[in-house]
Specification:
It is a single chain. By secondary structure, the protein is α+β, with helices and mostly antiparallel strands. The chain folds into five domains: 143 residues, Immunoglobulin-like (Sandwich), CATH 2.60.40; 81 residues, no CATH class; 73 residues, no CATH class; 70 residues, no CATH class; 84 residues. The protein contains three helices and 29 strands. Strands 1, 2, 3, 4, 5, 6, 7 and 8 form an eight-stranded mixed beta sheet that branches. The longest helix has 98 residues.
Length: 484
């Protein structure tokens, strides 16, 4: 039927266009992914192409239904048959087919029946066709094929030498750089083309140690971390210790970010001029400190005491807070920590899973210290009314007093009930004793009566015996008299 349709199309085209004998050829390419995962979908594209225009064509797709299930098709009938024509002719025509992968194994998708005719003279094109081989795997089988290579092939700092010399298995390196260098260029080449590398390129450096991490991720996801410690010479380092951490004062202004409401300034520390930020509202002087890994923080510098303390800002809508230590413990609340704006902050919570956390700090725009209630879901701050806090604490005290009174009354009632029960028990015990005595007396009396009755019965028996004897004697006596 398809061939009859194509012949009809060819005759129509022949009537409309002059016949020109011209040998032409074309190709049928089947393309798509060479690998697919069981349960997932895989797309296959069939493309008919020729250097001359194609007037009509017919092709049939062939695949193993035990491995693949057709989900979607752009063919004319929505299946695997591709048959159509063009009124103006085309040099290429593509179809896409989507399959669901049913099981693991190796399968092939091909075009096993095909015809095409030239648009100009309806001559049959000489076609060559390819096929697509697909390896079907489970996710586990696919991941087992991934490369595990997460090594670097080379690592260097442009213009400087690493110590020690690079080796793919050596993970930490040091480089010394003059004090006037402000930028370096990290170069790295991965050992496997399927791996990825981060941490390379141009980097800013400051006096002292600057640590950079170059991370290589293999195709299978495994990572390897190379560390570069870039030591920029500092002719006059200013060392600072806060808690257990060692820092050096930053002397370059261009790498420090000015906080809002602060103004740029310059102060003198240990005879060296140091960039700083001052605020008339808060009275704070901030300087930059760099730790041993190269991380820079801002710290409050006390010019009188020559001391440093970390400066921590939290930004919210129309509000910037400097968090401070709580002046007092909040009774009825539990002290804990909360991640706020990617920083770990000491807070108080009414319950461990409470939505709200209580902070204490200064609004750096007003210089006023307040308690703030932080909404952990919305990420917003609100001034926490201390009167409300006091009322709550008073309510807690009142509740505690009420509980004490209630428990005291309950204990008194319990003791009273125990006393009454004990007294009743004593009475009951005495009554039982009296009852037992009466019972014993009754039994004794009953026993005495039984003995008296027994005695009387014995007497009765004795009298009856005597009466019987007497009667017998009387009869015998009368019989004797009668005989006489």
């Amino acid at each position: 039927m398809k061939k009859i349709y194509l012949c009809f199309l060819s005759l129509v085209t022949l009537c409309l266009f002059p016949l020109v004998v011209n040998a032409a050829s074309g190709t049928i390419r089947v393309t798509g992914s060479a690998n697919a995962v069981v349960g997932n979908q895989v797309k296959v594209t069939v493309t008919l192409a020729s250097s001359t225009k194609i007037g009509s064509w017919q092709m049939d797709l062939n695949y193993d239904k035990s491995y693949l299930s057709l989900v979607n098709s752009s063919a004319e009938g929505g299946g695997t048959s591709m048959a159509s024509s063009s009124a103006t002719g085309v040099k290429s025509k593509s179809y896409t087919f989507t399959f669901k992968v049913l099981k693991s194994g190796n399968t092939k998708v091909s075009v096993n029946s095909y015809l095409a005719y030239a648009f100009s003279d309806l001559s049959q094109l000489s076609l060559t066709s390819s096929s697509l081989s697909i390896k079907l795997m489970t996710q586990k089988e696919l991941e087992a094929t991934y490369s595990k290579d997460n090594n670097l092939k080379s690592l260097s700092i442009e213009g400087y030498e690493l110590t020690p010399a690079f080796n793919k298995d050596t993970l930490e390196y040091k480089v010394s750089i003059p004090s006037d260098v402000t930028k370096i260029n990290i170069l790295a080449e991965k050992n496997d083309s399927k791996a990825s590398v981060t941490g390379t390129g141009e980097k800013e450096v400051v006096e002292g140690n600057n640590r950079f991490e170059i991370i290589v991720t293999a195709q299978n996801g495994s990572e390897k971390k190379y560390i570069l410690d870039i030591e920029v010479e500092d002719l006059n380092p200013i060392s600072v210790k806060i808690g257990d951490n060692n820092y050096t004062v930053v002397k370059r202004k261009d790498i420090l970010e000015k906080p809002s409401t602060f103004e740029e300034a310059t102060i003198t520390i240990n005879g060296a001029e140091v960039p700083a930020f001052k605020s008339e509202i808060t009275g704070f002087i901030l300087v930059g400190l760099k730790d041993e890994t190269g991380k820079i923080i801002l710290a409050i510098y006390d010019e009188t005491a020559k001391t440093y303390s970390p400066y921590q800002e939290l930004h919210a809508t129309n509000l910037t807070l400097y968090l401070a230590d709580f002046p007092n413990d909040l009774k009825g609340y539990t002290k804990t920590t909360q991640i706020i704006k990617e920083k770990e902050v000491v807070v108080y919570k009414y319950k461990e899973d409470s939505r709200f956390a209580i902070c204490y700090g200064m609004n750096i725009e007003t210089g006023k210290y307040e308690y703030y209630k932080y909404d952990t879901e919305e990420g917003t701050f609100q001034i926490w009314d201390t009167e409300e806090m006091q009322d709550l604490q008073n309510d807690i005290k009142t509740y505690q007093y009420a509980c004490v009174l209630f428990l005291g009354g309950l204990l008194f009632a319990f003791i009273l009930i125990l006393c009454l029960l004990k007294k009743k028990h004593k009475k009951s015990k005495k009554a039982k004793k009296n009852e037992k005595e009466v019972e014993n007396k009754f039994e004794d009396k009953n026993r005495s009566i039984q003995e008296e009755i027994k005695k009387e019965e014995q007497k009765k028996e004795t009298l009856e015996e005597k009466l019987k004897k007497f009667d017998q004697f009387d009869i015998n006596d009368r019989e004797k008299n009668m005989r006489e």
